[in-house]
Protein 1
Amino acid sequence: MILTKDSLRRLWRNKYFQVFVDIALALIASSILLLSLRLFLGVEYPLLVVSSGSMMPTLNIGDLIVVQRAEPPQINIGDIVVFKNPRNSAELIVHRVVKISSGQDGYKITTVGDATGGSADQFSPWDGSRLVGRVIMRVPYIGNLYLLLHPGGADRSILTAIIIVAIIILIAMILFSDVEGEDGEDEKRWGISLEHIMYIAAVNLLLISLIVFSLWGYIEIWQPGAIPPQKVKVLGMFPDLQWNENYGEANFSWGFMTYRIDCEIGGSTRLGVPTFSWFQLFFLILILFDAHEVFNLMVRPNLKKLHSREFSEG
């Protein structure tokens, strides 16, 4: 079979082929992103999913945590770290550091789960050589999809993470792609079709709903991938703050695309983890999407007319 320019052009315009290309590009982009994270953060598994409630309310079941490599001398009291279970090296534990000691045998680290009320965990003190890294960020919600795909939480396959990130990238590509079709009477008269208006309205409604949920949402879902399987809370930002207030005086702070909740407990501060702000992301996407549509509707046609006029005069 010989491919000509016309056949290649028809293939490129085929909507099924374009969907395939979009999926392939999303998978490639997500693979590059995750491999770059592994190199930049220096750990084999830079993205991990919380599957138990031992670190509630700081880390919730279904949170995706970002882990950066750290050596025992770089760890401070109060840091949340990931380490290999002394009884099963294939299992990773995430707990908070409360004591660090060093001697001829090397570093010994004592950790606790925030949900246990301050008593040392069953693994402590554990050898510093088992340290994997420090938790530097958490991303709420999306780890629940991973747990659903891997009940028991044992599989840390990077393929699943690639697929999840690819889905997010693909959704973004779809949102900002131009919706094309045959020009109808409405489009000829007003410059925009009824179908495109409905598309814009649907995307705005979806993004506004996501913004509202990311701020005030609260649902409970059955999570078979949790350890043990149980109902888990999916919390918006303000319900998350209220939940932390059940444990102590909660202090809320903003950052760029993040927020953090620290707790005053027993006269000391239990530091939270910078948390990815879905509210800020969805709000930014809403602004960019509407600006993109306004540009296509009002600015681009005028630019085309101006360009055509200059071309005809030249």
Protein 2
Amino acid sequence: MRKGEREGIVPRSYWGPLSLLDEMERMLDDLRMGWGESWFPSLPIFSGGFERIPAVDIKDAGDKYIVQAELPGIRKDDVEIEIVDNMLEIRAKKEEEKEEKGVGYVRRERGRLSFYRRIPMYEDIDPDKIEAKMEDGVLEIALPKLRKVEEKRKKVEVK
């Protein structure tokens, strides 16, 4: 290529915030193609699926916590919520339902997807009254706090 000529639409010298990551991913793809997938079967970048940490918002609404977690592409039936030692655990897993025969993928990044997040609750919550709903890829969990028993105090005069 001669000086002043452009290669394609974007000049080779173009740098964007993700260009380094794109270049690293391309290099790892080249490595995988050269060595074969059997060398790196469990690494997420090579397997096409990995566990993600969902983005969450946690609100203190006085008598309860409200946790909202982004779970795009996940159905409500694929979500598990547990309270373990006053920690909220959110798990979600999606597997591709059908296998396509005879399709030669060049790159496959969709299909398997899982999310996991463990969130500490700083006050005791009532596990029997927890409610959850899912709408448009956002999971919302209401975690009612246990009522604190009022302390009975009486000042004792020292004689």
